[in-house]
User: Which sequence fits this backbone?
């Protein structure tokens, strides 16, 4: 039986969520002062016309702002250059509007505006200095639904010369405010919708099944997974303009950031990180390609090792994704019998309702989980990693740098090799 572990939450951003909330961004910016540094992506915000609208609003409020555009994944060189330039000018707040990389750029810039030295000095596993936690106030505005960076306390920085992705991390680096408007994701291309969606899903799965997981976030993670499973395929296939489904994916991404900050991640991200440090595969694509083969190995191992705690968690997800949760409310609606009678039937026939799951139920739920991941993989058809330039040398190096993080099953280097051969 699982117990509720001790836990503490270092804090979350002020979260503003909902379609149309982007129009309220100038007011949020103004609450931090009159001088803003705004970090945006290379093209999408401008092409959508939203940047012109925002700039007009900002000018009308009398805010003084500078905008910088960034491309690709965050690098120490670019972040150091921007921080060095704007340390000389008054900046009351940093705002990042874009995908996960743009938000990580903004997060790191806000931190480095208040630090001495270079960013490399403070990166985990690279530098020798500890971040002080001082920063300029930071607002995150995601335009994709994937990384959940708007609710995490780290910024991921890439250096392909040295072949790493490392984090700048401190509890204080959690954004001060996160504005999540699903309307901003309506223009996401199909491949980006797929890769970001699978990134959010993998983060929810890995945090829910992490060795550090506990009941404090379970309901939040499962609710977000339910919405993601409802929205993922339709959004990627034929309903990309459905704002309700976009909202479910934006919520899933937001929650995935909250849960991974608390419980950590697993082998999917333990392999995806080194891959992204070695060659230019988009992070969401790496996670999407890894999800099914990695989870196939993990589930087999937890069953072989008779790890019932982990089996139960994977089975929870399997039943959720296949609508096999034994909900008495669903049964009552379908049969139009009384709630009392419905509960009696559920308890006598369904182990979930009576709390009586056994090993066979866990195994069945784990199989359902893998079946859904297999269906998603076959339907969404992300490209093989060789499409992005992955070579055999990259694969060997990635294996040497990979780990299983907080996965309930530790993957061997040989197992990682098999996985990478499948997706290369």
Assistant:
């Amino acid at each position: 039986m699982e117990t509720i572990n001790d836990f503490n939450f270092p804090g979350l951003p002020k979260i503003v969520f909902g379609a149309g909330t982007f129009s309220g961004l100038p007011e949020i910016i103004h609450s931090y002062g009159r001088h803003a540094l705004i970090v945006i992506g290379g093209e999408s915000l401008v092409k959508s016309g939203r940047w012109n609208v925002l700039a007009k609003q900002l000018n009308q409020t009398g805010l003084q702002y500078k905008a910088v555009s960034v491309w690709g994944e965050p690098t120490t060189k670019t972040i150091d250059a921007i921080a060095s330039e704007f340390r000389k000018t008054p900046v009351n707040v940093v705002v990042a509007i874009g995908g996960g990389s743009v938000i990580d750029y903004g997060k790191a810039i806000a931190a480095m505006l208040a630090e001495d030295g270079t960013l490399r000095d403070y990166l985990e596993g690279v530098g020798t200095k500890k971040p002080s936690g001082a920063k300029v106030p930071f607002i995150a505005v995601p335009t994709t639904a994937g990384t959940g960076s708007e609710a995490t306390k780290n910024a991921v920085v890439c250096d392909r010369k040295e072949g790493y992705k490392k984090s700048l991390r401190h509890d204080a680096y959690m954004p001060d405010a996160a504005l999540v408007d699903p309307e901003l994701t309506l223009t996401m291309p199909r491949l980006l919708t797929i890769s970001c969606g699978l990134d959010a899903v993998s983060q929810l799965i890995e945090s829910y099944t992490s060795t550090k997981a506990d009941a404090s976030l379970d309901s939040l993670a499962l609710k977000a997974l339910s919405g993601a499973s409802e929205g993922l395929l339709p959004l990627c296939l034929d309903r990309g303009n459905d704002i309700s489904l976009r909202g479910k994916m934006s919520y899933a991404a937001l929650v995935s950031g909250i849960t991974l900050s608390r419980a950590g991640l697993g082998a999917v991200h333990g392999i995806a990180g080194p891959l992204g440090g070695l060659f230019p595969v988009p992070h969401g694509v790496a996670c999407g390609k890894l999800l099914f083969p990695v989870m196939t190995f993990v589930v087999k191992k937890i069953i072989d090792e008779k790890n019932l705690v982990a089996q139960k968690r994977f089975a929870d997800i399997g039943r959720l994704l296949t609508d096999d949760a034994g909900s008495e409310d669903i049964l009552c609606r379908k049969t139009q019998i009384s709630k009392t009678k419905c509960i009696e039937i559920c308890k006598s026939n369904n182990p979930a309702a009576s709390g009586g799951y056994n090993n066979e139920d866990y195994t069945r739920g784990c199989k359902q989980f893998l079946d859904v991941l297999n269906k998603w993989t076959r339907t969404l058809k992300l490209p093989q990693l060789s499409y992005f330039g992955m070579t055999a040398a990259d694969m060997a190096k990635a294996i040497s740098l990979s780990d299983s993080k907080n996965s309930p099953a530790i993957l061997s280097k040989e197992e990682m090799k098999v996985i990478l051969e499948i997706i290369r």
Summary: The first strand starts at residue 14 and ends at 17. The two ends are 40 Å apart (CA to CA).
